[in-house]
Predict the structure.
Amino acid sequence: MSIDSLIDKILDSYETYGGVNRKETENFPNRENVVSILQDLQWLIFPGFKTADSLSKENLRYETGLRVNRVITILTAEIKKAVRYLSNSTNCTTQVQKSFCFELAEKTSVAFIEEIPEIKKAISLDAQAILNGDPAAKSIEEVILSYPGLEAILVYRLSHFLYKKGVPIIPRMMSEYIHGKTGIDIHPGAEIGKSFFIDHGTGIVIGETTQIGDNVKLYQGVTLGALSVQKDLMNKKRHPTIEDNVTIYSGATILGGETVIGKNCVIGGNTWITKSVPEGTMITQSR
């Protein structure tokens, strides 16, 4: 078979199976652009901490403004793509079509930038929780520079804002990017309170309808999941509720939308929980 014939077959597959990004089609959001937005947003939260930039009092405003304008420009374009793509897709829901239109893309991007100080406040509390809770952490700078758990929480807080605004696709692209980087899978739809602490982190899964209170600590391999993955459970509470001041040790699995872990509980490692646990309980075996 000639090279031209092989190319023809590949081009035919584009027409048959779709998913092609070109000017005359409705393009899907670009993953590289979404990742670049995340990098700029992380810089805006922690300026200079994860780049080779040499910052001074004189150039900080310029460097900040550069990233603010870049985020607004790129994010607006990617949101428009996401909405346009879904509006022409057979899988697009009426709710998305009605609640989010092209004119809101730039307003959402600007609102996102306006939210940066609040996200900065929230992630600072998360970083302090890690410093306070981990004997190995020597400084807040060490936590910011080197803890994958904090980076995963930061991307969650960024993607969660867009998710709550009704932005399709892009929040999941953000969460799956950081999932691949850190091994920590936090759905942007989860609701997570203040001073959240992830230690080690690899293998943590937090499902879409999970609710987590304040001052909660999770160790590696914890799953906050659903009892069933049936499609008809979409838009229903499928994942557990974790109330304030709960510690969940490595390998614990907590499942179900009606499962509530009460305040001040300690959940031991490798436990399997599908029923609610009263406030102040220590669990050291499966129940």
Summary: The two ends are 61 Å apart (CA to CA).
